[in-house]
Amino acid sequence: MPLQYKRDYELLIGDLAGIRITGLRLKFEITKDLTGYPNLAKLEIFNLSKFTRDRIQDELENIILNAGYENNVKLLFKGQIRNVTHIKQGVDMITTIYAHDGAKDFDTAKTNITFKEGTTVKQIIESVIDTFKDTVKGSIEGLDNLGDKLQGVSLSGSSKDILDQYAQENNFEWSINNGELNIISKDKTLDRTFLITASTGMIGSPTITEIGADVKSLLNPEYIPNGKIKIESLTQNISLGDLNFRDIKKTAGEGIYKIRKITHVGDTHGDEWSSAIVGVSV
User: What is the CATH number of domain 193-281?
Assistant: First the structure.
């Protein structure tokens, strides 16, 4: 595996004529999950020039954060800026950017279409996806066997709400990650499995929960919702509520889990450069 040292990042704001930032102190917290809401990013950049701060405030919208380690920097977040603040703190001027991934389509995509008898559920869902104009169609899995609609159906309203309804009825999950809309069955994961052990960057011990296990590791941008991890550990913590009435498996949290939520936290001049995963048992 690539060496996980010498933190590095590249922050791109705007499009072709935008801004590239590297080398300055950067703090970030990025949350990605399967709850049906846009992924969120909070980024704090230290001591930008006034010209750059003004451009970010007034002109630019799109943002890309690539992060990782020297010679191994990968896409961590891609989205749109929602708010910007500038605060003087001691000798530092801190620019804080709040951004969402896919928020424009979450907010504005609408569906208004009638489907004839015999239309498959997959065709209906793909038509709804097509209304997400600023989002790329990513991995669409688990829809081939959902069957046909016995009657015609008319759909009108928020595309997000319609997808939520069909997801609940047909046991799949959908999310937007780095500008791509992905769909997968609740009992499935993406193909690739990431091994998390002490030697691959695990921090501390995993925590066994009612739904699976939580684990923290060195920052890895490739961990995404619906991804799959395999935990190997000698020790574990337990978080199950009232333990008196629980039958706790005597394991160390070892096993395979689906990533339900992940929080990437980093500070180029601090201690944190990590990924915290909420895992669901597969």
Answer: 2.40.30
Whether 75 contacts 64, CB under 8 Å: yes
Strand partners, 100: 40, 80
Tokens 């008898």 correspond to: 117
Parse the chain into domains and list their residue ranges.
7-101, 105-185, 193-281
Alpha helices in 26-135 (DSSP H): 50-58, 103-108, 121-129
Which residues lie closer than 8 Å to 36 by C-beta, 6 or more apart?
160, 164, 167, 174, 175
Are the beta carbons of 225 and 34 closer than 8 angstroms?
yes
Q: What is the pTM of this model?
A: 0.88
pLDDT tens, position by position, for the chain (282 residues)? 556 678 999 999 998 778 999 999 999 999 999 877 889 999 999 999 999 999 998 888 899 999 999 989 999 999 999 999 999 999 999 999 999 998 888 889 999 999 888 888 888 999 999 999 989 998 888 777 776 665 778 999 999 999 999 999 888 889 899 999 988 888 888 888 999 999 999 999 999 998 899 999 999 999 999 999 999 976 656 565 544 444 445 455 789 999 999 999 999 999 999 999 999 998
Q: How far is Cα 180 from Cα 12, in angstroms, rounded to an integer?
A: 18
Domain 7-101 shares a fold with domain 105-185? no
Structure token digits, residue 97: 């950017």
- Kindly indicate whether the domain formed by 7-101 is annotated with CATH number 3.30.750.200: no
